[in-house]
Every structure is written in structure tokens, then in C-alpha cells.
Amino acid sequence: MRPPEVILDNADIVYDYYRAHRQNRLKAWGAYALLGRRYHPRVVFAPEAREQVRALVKSGRPTIYSINHLSQNDPYTVAAAAWRSPLRPIIGRVRVLAKDELFVEPDQRAKVDMMGGIPVFRGKDHGIRAVNAAGQLMMDLCAQRLAQGDHLAIFPEGTCNDVDPTQVQAVGSGIGHIAFRAMKLGVAPALVSLGLSYGPRADPAVEPTKEEAKSALFYLGNPVAELPAKPADIARLVRADLQIALDGAVANY
């Protein structure tokens, strides 16, 4: 199937395509390795988290990785951190939610597809009502990919935090609905929070440069094995757990 044009009016066809899409794992490994050399994030762990994350990865259990969002460089630093951490074995099996505009330019889309991207039509770009049906399709798709054994990486704040890089901003219910729908498909996804810090920012509205982003620090929290039964409760847990991880990143920077 040829890749469809990623536009809102085409959402049903777009998500049909990404339901079956598979990454080229060899190319993904090469790309992550390259980013691991270009960026040099430090990766630290909550007590016992290194062993817990390694065991979780080895088990193959579908996992949702939640990361706070600070800059346009985040996907690159996250990829570099994955390469330089116990997450390396799952490279090529992680789907990453990415805004639809990243799928417009062909060369860029090829890279995003190779990295496991799934397009998201955001309410802030198209209007809340306009994206409702597409959002439902996207959440169903993510739940199905988890049920198929994939993992999912999400910036649950939905947009870059230009308010306070030490505080997780509002988390929408989408991540809760994805986990809830995966459970209805018979999957019990785990949750791992990655707190990201680029160090103290004089002005949080000014993103770190690429050179500054090379000094990123990630703090991996202890995996959460049991999630609540309701989407809203899952979303609240995600925000609280991600704040703990972000506090760890800030404290260890």
C-alpha cells in the first residue's frame, strides 16, 4: 500500500495505513546509533530502576513510555538516550506519536516513518471538534499496536512546555484512553516515565539550541506495572509519575 497523504480529511485511510506499517529495524538501529553519537545525553535511574527497566524490556511486555516535552530537539535526544540505555533492544518496535505537519515533506516523512512515527492531528492546529473523529481512530490504532506487541512513546503534554521546564504541564486524557483501550483488547501495558532536563533555563520560552540539547539528562523512573481502570485516573497517574521523573532529572542535572 502506498503511503497516503497525511491530511485530516484523509484520516481514516491514514490510520488504516499505519495500522499495518512496519519500520525497517536495521535502518532504525542505524539512525538511533547515529543520534547516540551526535547527542550525548546522560541517563540516570531511580533506585533499582535500571534493573527493573532491563527486566521489563527483556519480558517483551508492551510498554507506554511517557516523556515531558521541552523542545523540537526532544525526539533526537530521546532517540539518543534509547541507544545509550537498556531501551536499545526495543528500537524498531516503538511507535512514536508525532504532529501531522512532520509528515508533509517527503524526505522528512521518510525519516519519521523510519523512526516509528504515527501522525496526530492536534486540536490546537485544526480545532477540537474537527479532530475528534481522527483522535478516536488514532487512540484505537495505538491500542491495537500495543496489543500486537509494539511499544508506544508519548509526549503527553501535547506541546512544548514554554512555561516552567521543571513542572509537567497539563496531561490530556488521550494517554489514558489509549491504555484503557489496550486493556479492553486483553493487553496490560506497563508505564515508564522519562524525565528530561536541559538544565536551568533563563527564559523557558526560548528553546535550547542543538548544542545545548546535547547536554540533556534523562531520569528513568521505576516501571508502573498496574494501571488504574479508568482513563482519567490513568492520565492523573501519568502526570504524577512523570513529575517524579522530572524532579529526578532536575535534581541530577
TrEMBL record:
One of its GO terms (molecular function) is acyltransferase activity. It holds the Pfam family Acyltransferase. Keywords: Acyltransferase, Transferase. Residues 63-199 form the Phospholipid/glycerol acyltransferase domain. SMART domains: PlsC (SM00563). InterPro entries: Plipid/glycerol_acylTrfase (IPR002123). This is 1-acyl-sn-glycerol-3-phosphate acyltransferase. It comes from Nocardia bovistercoris. The lineage of its organism: Bacteria, Bacillati, Actinomycetota, Actinomycetes, Mycobacteriales.
